[in-house]
Structure formats: C-alpha cells, structure tokens
Amino acid sequence: MTPAGRRAAAALRVLFLALVAVFVLLPLAVVVVSSFSVDETGGGWPSGFTLRWFQRALDHEPFRVGLLYSLEVAGVATVISLVFGTMAAYAIARHRFPGRELLRSVFVMPLSLPRVVAGFCLFVLYASLFPAAYGTVGGIAFAHCLLLMPFVVAVVGAALAGLDPALEEAARDLGSSAGRAFWHVTLPQIRWALLAAGIFAFITSFDEVDTSVFLMPADTTTLPVAMFLRLEQQQDPTVTAMSSILIAGSLLLAAAAAVAARRTGGALGGVGATAGARTTGPEGSAEGEPTP
Amino acid sequence: MSDRAIAVRSLSKSFGRKDVLNDIELTVRAGEFFSLLGPSGCGKSTALRIIAGLERPDRGRVLLGGADVTGTPPHRRPTNLVFQQGALFPHMTVFDNVAYGLRARRTGRAEITRRVAEILDVVGMSEFAGRAPSTLSGGQRQRIAIARALVGRPDVLLLDEPLSALDLGLQLRMRRELRRLQRQTGTTFVCVTHNQSEAMEVSDRIAVMNDGRVEQIGTAEELYRAPVSRFVAGFIGENNLFDTAPDPGSPGRSRADGLTFPVPGGGSPLVAVRPEFIRVVEPSDEGAIGGAVVRSVGFLGARIRIVLETSTGREVLADTDAHSSTVTVGAAVGVAVDPAHLTVVPADGRAVRSEGAAG
Amino acid sequence: MTRETPAPALTKEGRGRTRERRVAYALVAPGAAYLVLIFLSIVLLLVSYSFRTEQTSRLIAPFDTGTWAEALSNPYNLAVLWTTLRVGALVTLLTVVLAYPIAWCLLRVRRWWVAGLLMFVIFSPILVSVVVRSYGWMLLLGHGGLLGGVLRGWLYHEPGVILALVHVELPFAVFPLLASLRNLPPGVLEAAADLGAPPLRRLRTVLLPLTASGIVASAQLVFALTVSAFATPSLLGGGRVTVLAQSVYQNIQQLRWPLAAAQALLLLAIALAVLALFNRLSRYADVRHRSPEGGDSR
What we know:
- The structure holds three protein chains of three kinds.
- Helix content of chain A is 71%, strand content 0%.
- Chain A is mostly helical.
- Chain A has a single domain (62-286), classed as MetI-like fold (Orthogonal Bundle), CATH 1.10.3720.
- In chain A, helix 1 (3-35) crosses helix 11 (237-264) and helix 3 (61-94) runs antiparallel to helix 9 (191-207).
- The longest helix of chain A has 34 residues, at 61-94.
- Chain A is globular, with a radius of gyration of 22 Å.
- Chain B folds into two domains: 4-233, Rossmann fold (3-Layer(aba) Sandwich), CATH 3.40.50.300; 239-345, CATH 2.40.50.140.
- Helices cover 23% and strands 34% of the residues of chain B.
- Chain B is built from eight helices and 21 strands.
- In chain B, helix 2 crosses helix 3, helix 2 packs parallel to helix 4 and helix 3 (109-122) packs across helix 4 (138-150).
- Chain B is elongated, with a radius of gyration of 24 Å.
- Helices cover 70% and strands 0% of the residues of chain C.
- Chain C contains twelve helices and no strands.
- Chain C has helices at 15-50, 66-73, 75-106, 112-123, 130-141, 158-182, 188-194, 199-210, 212-227, 231-237, 244-253, 257-288.
C-alpha cells in the first residue's frame, strides 16, 4: 500500500472508532446532561441547568433506603464470594485431588445460568423453605454469590496460575506453616487480582437487577431495582439524577479497577475471561498496549 | 547429631499411574557433599522434595539425624532447600528474603541483623541487602537463594539443580563456590543434578539414579572405574560397551562385533572399555583383539579422538595422546585393549541394595 | 498427624495424599456446597413446580402436565418464545458484525494511551448499571430525545430493544474477538497479500477462518446474555415487547408460579442448548485453527 493510502486507512480506522465511542458513550452522556436540566422530560438539549434533581433524588425515600440496602448487599456478597472463591481457586490451582476438573467447571457453570432463572429459583427456594430470607440483606447477598463466585474463582485462579508454586514451598521450607506461607508470600502477590476481583464483584452485586427483583417486596428494594420499578411506571428526572451518581461512581471504580488490572496484567481481561470462561481462556490484557 | 545425617528407607512414590520412585535406599553421612545424579525424570528431584517434606512418600521412611521425620511438615524439619530458579520472594528485598526463615522461627531482631549480614558476607553479596530480587543477575539470585537457605543453619542443605539456570562459565565458578561454602559451613549438602561433570567435581559421593531407582552409590572415581550396571557404565563418562558372547574356539574369551575380549570365566558378560584404554595398533600386532577401519580423527587438544569401525559396522571410540599419534582416515588398523582396563559390568547391576557394596 | 485412617496392610500408603486431599476438599467445600445446593434446587424445585397447575408454595403437589401444555401451545406463550429467539439472533448478528471491525481497529491503534483510552471507553460501560444504560436509550429515543425524531417509533418497540441490547452486549462481543485477533500468527495477512490476494479475499480466506473460534465465542456469549436479558427489554419494550425473562417475572407477579417455572426451565434449556451448539461449532472452528495454548507450564 502507498504511504498515502496507509494514512487514509489509519484515518478511517480512527473515524470508525470515534463513531463507536460516540455510540457507546451517548446513552450515558444523555443521562448525565439531562440530570442537570431544568426540563422535566430529558433526552434533548436542556433549556437551563439546575441541581434540583440531585437534591430530590437524595431525598426520595426508596432511593435513600435502596442505596444503603445495595451497599450492604454488595459488601456482604463481595466479602463472602472473595473468601470462599479464593479458597476454592487456591485448592483448584494448587492441589491435586480427584474431581478437580469437575469442580473447575462447576465453579464456572453459573455463568451459563440465566440470572432470571437463578432469581426465580431462589425465590421459590426461599418461599418454600426459608421464608425469613426473602427481602433481607443476607438472602439477597446469598443469591448474588452465585453471580460473583465464578468471577472471583476465574480472576484469582488466573493470578494463582501465574505464580510460581515454589515460592510458597520455599516459605514452608524456611519455617512457615502452610497458612503463614500463604499469608506472607502468596497473598501479597495476588493482592491486585483480589482488589480487581473485589471491585468488579462489588459493582456487579450493587448493579444487580435480574436476580434481585425476584427476592424482595416492591416497597423496599435495592437501588437499581427501585430505579427499574420506577422507570417501568414513568420517566422521572430524579431517576436521571440518581443514574448520574451511579455512572460517576461506576466510572471511578472502573478506573481504580483498571489500575489494579494493569498491576495484575489484565483484570479487565478477567471480566471478559469470566464472561467467556467457557469458551476462550483469559488471553492477554484488555488494558494492555496494542500489538503493532 | 548422629553420623548419619539422612537415611532414606525403601521410599516409593507414584504420581497417578507413573512410579516416580521405586524402593529407594540412601544414607548420607554428616558433613559430606552428596549428589543425586540422573537424567531428567529419574525421580531425583522428587526424592529431594520428599526429604525436604514438600512431597509425601507413598511408602517408606525418611530419617534425619536418626529421627523419623516422614510425617513432619517442611517447616519443622532441620533441612532447607535451594530451589531450581531460586524462588526468591519478589515482593521482598534481599535482606527480607534472607531474614525470612529467621523471622519465621522468631529470632531476635539484633540476631537477625547479625546473621543475615554474616551469611551475605559469606556468599559475597553484602552490598545487595537492600536490592529487590528482580534487579539481580541469575548468579546473584542463586547466591541469595543459598544464603537464605543457609542462614538458619540447617543440619542439611538440599539443592535442586542449583546451577542449571546459569550460563556455563558461571556454572563452573559456582561449582567451586558451592564446594567452598560446604567446607566453610560444615553443613551436609545434598545436591540434585543431571550434570555429571558438576556432580563429579563437587561431590564426596554420588548416587546415580535411573527410572526411579538408585543404580549405584559411590565416589566419582568408583563410579567411573567400577560401574555396576549398564546404565552407570554408559551414563558416567564415555564408554565403549560390548554385549559379548562366548568364543567357541577359545575358552576364557568372549566375542562381540568382531573383537575378542579376554574375560576371566568366559560367558556372555557386558564388557566396558573407556576410549582412553583402547589403543590403535598395527593390524598384525599380536596384542590386537580385532581389526577396524579408521572413520574419523578429531583433535581435542591434549588428546585425539579416533572413531573406528569394526567389521560388523560397530563404532568404537579411542582416545590417544595428541603428540604420538599418526593414524590416517581410511587406514586398516588393529584394536588393542589392556586387560587391566577392561571392565566386566555385572549382569544385574540394579541390585545395589547394601550400602557397603559401593560406598 | 491428623486422624489416623484405618489402612491396616500398608500403614504409610497414600497417607500424604489423603491429607492433601482433605485440605483441598475443605477449601472447596463451602463454595461447592453452595453451588450444588443451588443447582439441586433448580432441578428439583423448578421441575417440581412446572409439573403442577395449582398455585401453592408447598413442596409436594399433584403431578400435572397441564402447565407444560400451556407453556408450549398457548399462542401468547409461543409468541414470547419466538420473540426471545428472534431478538437474540438479531442482536447476536448485529453485535458481532459491529464488534469485529472494532476489535480489528483497536489492535491497530499506534499510540498506547489512545488505545488504552478507547479500551476504557468500550469496556467500562460493563460496570454501569444496565438500568442506567437502558434508561439512557429511553431518553434518547423518547419524545423530545436526541434521536426521537430520526428513529421515531423505535421506543417501546422491537427496534429500540434491539438497539439498546446491542449497546449493552457490545463489550462482551469485543473481548473474545480481541483475544482471537491477537493470537493471529504474525505475517499471514502480509503473506496472503504477497501471494496476490486482494483485501476481500484475504478477509474471506485467511482472516475469518483463523479467527473463527473467536467469532463463535463472541456469538455464544452475546446470544446467551441476550436471551436471558431482563431489564433492557422490560424498559425499552414498555410492555409491548415481551421476552421469556419478563414473562417469568410477570407470571410470578400474577401468582402463576408453575407457568413461571416452566418458562424458566425453557429459558435454561435454550441457554444450555446454545452452549452445547456453540461448543460444537467452536470445536469445528478449532480443527481449522488450533491456537497454540500452552497449558500450565510448570
């Protein structure tokens, strides 16, 4: 190809990617802009700006309760799935035992389970056997672990696979018990993977609708469910303001996770890896530099 | 400590269906440099890891200083291991790496500082205490790995292919270094290697392993001069091996590949002759045990390597003094062997169970 | 050490291994027990509920195939099933066709910070709530919205649902394609060009076959996520477009748990069938292109 042709091709690629970026960002941008708009119906260019909707969103009882509710659920679910997911990932990565391969696939299986099915199933489970769990932080966090666990096992498992098992053996050989060796040697090296997995798990749980919607009464719900239920009725500037807050929070955490991902060599890759765990493996880092 | 630093008794281990160790017997004396030598996959590393406590045997016992430690976890054993690639903790400085074992054993702070400084001095790495392992060269990393394992003053230092990751020149220097460290500290060293010249240079005694078994235990010289099995005869140094059959014409002689060997007792033994003990003579020489044709002549410095081919097409290696040889390629020559340097390898060389047999 | 296992003949036989296994099982036990409980309850509860007709939360009820008959023959339920599959197929097709050039171009961005920024732009929406993203499309397509004029009538109809779903699933489609394009053996495209193949022929004969496994993975992921999507079709469909996931939810609201159970099982069956189908496809794709995977290199 001639240099001019090559430059033209490069320009076309940039133009295409710019259009894609607009497509990806437009729905988010319109939410953010509308949340500052004085107009009751958003979506167009605002005729004036105000912070009124933010005030109103934070005063709106279901949103305030829902925000706290969501934070509690996400916190509990993240901690549980990090602890048990890391334990399982460690056993699968480091121990030889019969049924290991089977367990490896058991832990990614929930990815193939439609969230609505999981929600309905847990709803029936609670309704038939544990009525007390319905609509509680514990009951919803318990359900969310189903979505978070495969993710933690995949990301932490990938980090452990990249670690030389001799390091932990060296620590044990030098006088540390197996537990202390894990704590002193393995944990510090997978901390970025744990952080990335934790952030993604937290956001996933915090944003969850499809499963959660089955597990709580419509009057007290987590924040995204409250927003969903309200949007089913009507469009509303307070939802717009709340959405802006969520976008800001998500992007902040996404940036943090991207930094953590860089340290581990690709935890955003881990997102895709989890999502695509049953097909392609975690190959390379989504945040890495492009190969020329 | 008893005179026996390590005793390994009828040790067996398998991974899945593969038998990695098959009824191993070893005794390592206190203060000696002992090597486990064998090709990759012969089970030598597994044996070392079992002694360290990192693997558990399926059967058999490990005794350290007379005490049975078979069920003892690695952190309660008086052994320390130098890993193949060093296995330095990448998130700790050199000092913290070396101090790790002392801290794990709750040594006092002042004592840690003193002993780390001391051992870093011994391995010549004092000025690197504050560095991160990733900034060190391969040889430096290995020195730190050795220092980390030695600082706790283990009864036995175990080394798993400690030099294999280094380039050749560095390997040669580190061999002398290892030997010096062993003498200086008086620690029992058990070193796993697949490199026979390394094992022969540094070790007091060597156990040759093959296919999960110990073939022979002895000094380098014993292994070289009196191999007890076909494997050892072929693995240690270069050798010409002949599967002989009795010579029907003359009792007390056996034949193979057109050559006739004086074998006391006759029969069909495996006969081994080192290249340096094969002489190239005139075809008519009365000491000749057969004829051959010179295929190639290579100059090796002090010696000349002559490749001969017997009438059956068998290659025979012969080394001669570079200053006295005048063979030409294609010439028909006679092959002569000094009967004193002809080794008859026992038919069942594997049955080296008793320690006294070789050591 | 720990408890002595009775092994009379060979006292030391396999003791180490048994202990290691015990530790490993103890570590995986909580997570595995949890997953097994959920899987079991899916099989037992959902199946049990789908074979009854009366609304009850008791575990035991008379066996009845009436619910299944309704789920599979009632025209409305069949329409829901058909909509689910149609939307799934269209979204998958559109998303993969859009994602392929995106992945291709992303790998050709020279400046690392531009590439990093674009990656962030494309992947970070995964972290923004689906409700928020769908709401963004409601605003855009709504009356007075930025696109409300051009795309009139898309909101609360199938095109709007499809558009929003493409937006939601796009990052998931890009990821496997990026991985697959990165694994392309270096030089093959230059070699094809050198041998005289024009661009379209290079695409058809070299690029697509060599990245077939990535395309299959991408399509599998998007289809699986789309057929089970709930919030986006609910919000952008506005009650006029109903897919299986919504129907399950609505049937619970209307206290028709048995029908919800049957439809949940249908949804699960579609998800698993898609998984199996695409796994088979990817095996076929892999025959033509075995990507060199190292396995664990210990």
